Structures are given as structure tokens and as C-alpha cells.
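Exam revision sheet. Question 4 asks you to relate a sequence to its structure. Input first:
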Amino acid sequence: MSDEQDRVLLLSDLRALESKVERRISEEGETTRRQVDARISAEAEKTRQQFETTRQEVDARISAEAEATRQQVDARISAEAEATRRQVDARISTEAEKTRQQFETTRQEFDARISAEAEATRQQFDARILAEAEKTRQHFEARIVSEGQETRRHFDVVAERIESLVKLVAEVNSHHATVLDDHEHRLQNIEGHR
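Answer key, C-alpha cells:
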């Protein structure tokens, strides 16, 4: 795998990890809130049941005190639950912001490194491509010159053959012209004798 592909995969993995961390923080915050709510609800229910049992047992004797105690406990539980919820919300918000900032810093560092590496890689590829293009051009120029010389030699040979064949045809044509002229003179002589 090339460095470029490694970088792209690393960036993709980083973004996936960032998404997972954000999702996990959200899920853990929700889970913690639900656990706190469930625990508070369970504790509140348990306390209410205890007080209800006590109230029923001694209702005739301490009805007024039981009601006051119940109200105090309800107020205290509500206050403590609200305080706990606020603490948990504040802590989750703080941690989420710190994590987001860390990921943003890391993303910016990776972006800068990837940009620098990509530019260096592009320059290397450009240099290699130009060098290879020059080698290829020189190779083909040499081949073209070589092929041109070979083709010229071939045409010179063909031209010499054609020239010799044209001379031969001219000689044969000249001979035939002479023979035909002789034949024509003979025919004229024969016709002239008649």
C-alpha cells in the first residue's frame, strides 16, 4: 500500500474514531443519566415504601411527624437528585468539549501533515514523470532517426532496382521499336512491290 493510501486510510480511521467517540460520549452520558435517574427513582421508591410502611404502622400516633419527615426527605432527595444531575451534565459537557478540542487539534495536525506529504509526493511524481517523459522522447527520437535511415536505405535499394528495371524496359522497348520499324519497312516494301 502506498504512503498516500496509508494517509487516506489513517484520515478515514481518524474520522471514524472521532464519530465513535462522540457517539460513545453521547451514549455514556445518556446511560449515566439513566442510571442516575434509575438509582434515584429506586432509592426514592424504596424510601417512600419505608415511610409508607412506617406511616401506616404508627399513623395514629405520629401522623404529623411522619408527614413532616416525608416532606423533608422528598425535598432532600429532589435537591440532591437535581444537584447530581447538574454535576453529571456539567462533567459530561466539560469532557465532551475537551475531547472535541483534542480531536480538532489532532485533525488539524493530520490535515497539515497530509497536505505537506501530498505536496511532496506530487512534486516527486511530477519530477519522475518529467524524467520518464524525457527518456521516452529521447528513445523515440533515436528510433525515428534509426527507422528513417533504414527506410532511406530501403528506398535507395528499391530506387536502384526500379532504375535498372526502367533501363531494361527502355532497352527492350527500343529493341522492339527497332524490330517493329524493320518489320514495318519490310511490309511497306512488300506492299510497294505489289
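Marking note for examiners. Residues 1-138 form one domain.
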